[in-house]
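Q: Given only this backbone (144 positions), what sequence would you predict?
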């Protein structure tokens, strides 16, 4: 079997039984059938903290090989859909405020939390952008 190196966000969402309309309602500026999830290369992944499964950039969503395996094997459809929708929330956030503003707030919130003594994991989980992404993804997936 050949290895899959990309898939469309909408394919993973629909395969888990989540309606694309529900995603559209939650994320009006995102067209999930135009967003590719691609396997992140080794050099990119070297910059990721341990445990990171995917990163959203203005050029698309990049995922850990484990996520590509979820897609290929169909072994974890619900978690895959939740992860993909989480990343689409970040696409929406980028669309709404623009890359520079989004990245500046993300980074300054993170650094403020680290200076206040939080661990990397605590600081990351506490970011407004991450809280919103988790809440929306959980809500949309729970609706099926
Ligand atoms: Zn996130």
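A: Predicted residues:
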């Amino acid at each position: 079997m050949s290895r899959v190196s990309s898939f469309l966000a909408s394919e993973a969402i629909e395969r888990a039984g989540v309606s694309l309309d529900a995603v559209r309602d939650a994320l009006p500026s995102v067209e999930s059938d135009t967003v590719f999830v691609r396997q992140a290369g080794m050099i990119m992944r070297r910059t990721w903290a341990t445990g990171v499964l995917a990163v959203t950039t203005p050029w698309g969503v990049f995922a850990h090989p484990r996520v590509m395996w979820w897609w290929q094997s169909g072994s974890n459809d619900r978690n895959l859909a939740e992860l993909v929708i989480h990343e689409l929330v970040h696409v929406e956030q980028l669309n709404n405020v623009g890359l520079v503003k989004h990245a500046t707030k993300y980074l300054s919130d993170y650094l403020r939390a680290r200076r206040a003594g939080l661990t990397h994991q605590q600081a990351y989980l506490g970011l407004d952008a991450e809280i919103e992404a988790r809440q929306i993804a959980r809500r949309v997936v729970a609706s099926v």
